[in-house]
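DOMAIN: structural biology
WANTED: fold as tokens
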Amino acid sequence: MATAAQWIAGARPRTLPAAVSPVIAGTGVAGYAGAWSDPADIWWRAALAMVVALALQVAVNYANDYSDGIRGTDDDRVGPLRLTGSGLASPSAVKRAAFLAFGVAGLAGLGLAAATAWWLLAVGVLCILAGWFYTGGRHPYGYYGLGEVMVFVFFGLIAVVGTTYVQTLSWEPAAWYAGVGMGALACAILVANNLRDIPTDIEAGKRTLAVRLGERRTRMFYALLIALAAVALLAVAAVTTWWALVALLFLVPAGRGAATVLRGAVGPALIPVLQKTGSAELLWGVLVAVPLFLA
């Protein structure tokens, strides 16, 4: 049986910045829009949005662990621990863990919908379905090169704009721009992951975008996503405050990750890129949120 530490490792904590960062950025935009003039009425909405994001990320990680494991995709895995593929936990146990995390996200989302708008329930259902069918079901879209599109939409646009909306009940242009930045960096994490896994994914018949693009173009795509995150930051600053440009410090870890990718690193040498890109996304979100709150 897997230990508690192995279950935590299976949840892939290094991917959690991709869940936390959009909520931080969206909350910063909400603060700039004046939603936090009465913090007593708002803080719990931001907290519930954070619970939704974290629970969805963990659920997706366990769901991928289960689905890839039963397909044999993880039999020769290079990256972080997978519970199903390694045999440390039964597929049914990992599947239950995924459903439990989806349930936590659903309950937190229900609270937000009740306090704001019931149509958010439909968005929540779409998020859960997107999380499960990334590698689950008979025709997982992650196996057909669509993973980056969904990550951009759900962990970028929807995460940021949704977080801002539940606090402001309005559509803020800065939230859309921040959503692009967060989406680009979340995609960059996935691109680095799939770049590392190209050889094993080809063997398993997993046609990720990295497999379709090939190694050279995937490396260029990673760099392009980092550049897009910087452009999105300029757009946020243009409609809010130029102090938001302090978040360009995200380019320090992101630049190191890009240098590793562009130098041709392969296999385990790409694992640190995931951490650097996650750190870059967290910096982007935090260093945007702080000046927006103070403006």
The two ends are 51 Å apart (CA to CA). DSSP finds 13 helices and no strands in the chain. The chain has one domain: 4-294. The first helix runs from residue 4 to 10.
